[in-house]
Write a structure and sequence with these properties.
It is a single chain. The protein is built from 13 helices and no strands. It has one domain. The protein has helices spanning 2-29, 53-66, 68-85, 91-104, 114-130, 137-162, 169-175, 180-193, 195-210, 217-246, 254-265, 269-304, 313-347. The protein is mainly alpha-helical.
């Protein structure tokens, strides 16, 4: 009896190890590169012809403008729901920050910051959440769910628009939420992959307080470690962002999406990463171009008309910018994904 049980246990373990070995061989067959080995030219991953940075941006903007009514409707819907269930930046806190900055600017950097410098500091503080009240757990959950729904709806709109399907915003909102659970799971993975960057930020703050960044071999080693941590996060995230698009396809599970996305980016990761960094740069520039003049105009009108300080102009525009940024980033990533998939299909 004991011998039979041992044989059964042995078969189960052997079957499990056989499956693992098969998965490993399957994985290696899709990865021609080996660490510390020269890859044969015949095994190179085929290069893809991706659009340039400006061309990709233009293509994304063209698709958004082509469907501007639907995307504006989505932006308004998301902004209203965010304002109702989560809230937006407090105008009272924003006014307090503005007044505090004016009174203390003469002590910053040993002199007056000037209007532009004050506006810049106020903009960074406001965007970083300095004017936002602390959210409770329910509000944080709702904020995450709304962001996921905007992502799913944007991808659904783009996929059907490119396919030539006629639809309304109502159709997109009602039908886009099918892969909600897989998308949430991949979003959680994306947050985990962001941990090395978060550790770098914490380490940078601690290094500033301890004087580690003043120079010498310690500072050099610190920046090397930071560079490795940031590179690790970007390496992981470049795959997961595409997996968030792949998982919206019918019948695709999270691990399948990660596997497919990993196969898409292999051998092309730097090309993709450069375009994702370009996306981040454009987002930062757009916030500066919109918010910095707005804060200056708001300060100028408030100095003339005292009652205007109670008008939540900056919080409203900030909410609109947050919504527009999420929709544009999702559109950019989807267009980049489609270009890679379409070009790979032509080569095969």
């Amino acid at each position: 009896m004991k011998t039979i049980k041992k044989l059964k246990a042995y078969k189960i373990v052997a079957k499990f190890l056989s499956k693992l070995n098969k998965r490993r061989k399957d994985f290696l067959s899709r990865r021609p590169h080996r660490s510390f080995r020269i890859t044969k030219r015949i095994d190179y991953v085929k290069k893809i012809n991706l659009p340039g940075y400006f061309s990709l941006t233009k293509k994304t903007n063209y698709i958004l403008l082509k469907n501007k009514k639907i995307f504006i409707g989505l932006m308004v819907t998301y902004a209203v729901m965010t304002a109702l269930f989560i809230g937006m930046a407090s105008q009272e806190i924003f006014n307090t920050l503005s007044e505090t900055l004016k009174t203390t600017s003469s002590q910053v950097a040993g002199g007056d910051l000037g209007a532009l410098g004050q506006a810049g500091v106020l903009m960074i503080t406001t965007i970083a959440g300095g004017a936002t009240q602390n959210l409770n757990e329910l509000q944080q959950t709702i904020a995450g769910l709304l962001s996921v729904f905007v992502w799913l709806t944007t991808v659904w709109i783009l996929r059907n628009s490119i396919a030539g399907v006629k639809f309304k915003l109502r159709d997109a909102i009602y039908n886009a939420g099918a892969p909600l659970i897989p998308t949430i799971l991949l979003s959680l993975m994306l947050i985990i992959q962001f941990i090395p960057i978060a550790l770098s930020v914490v380490g940078f703050s601690a290094a500033q307080l301890t004087g580690l960044l003043e120079g010498g071999i310690e500072a050099m080693l610190f920046w090397v470690v930071v560079g490795l941590l940031v590179s690790l996060s970007l390496y992981w995230m470049s795959t997961t962002l595409f997996a968030l698009v792949v998982v919206t396809l019918p019948g695709v599970y999270p691990m399948q999406a990660l596997k497919t996305a990993s196969d898409i980016v292999v051998g092309r990761r730097l090309m993709i990463l450069y375009r994702l960094l370009w996306m981040a740069l454009l987002i930062v520039l757009s916030w500066i171009i919109v918010m910095l003049p707005l804060i200056l105009i708001n300060a100028w009108i408030t100095s003339i008309w005292e009652a205007f300080k109670y008008v939540p102009l900056v919080p409203i525009v900030m909410l609109a910018m947050s919504t527009a940024t999420l929709i544009w980033a999702a559109s950019y990533i989807y267009v980049l994904y489609r270009n890679i998939v379409d070009d790979a299909a032509k080569q095969s």
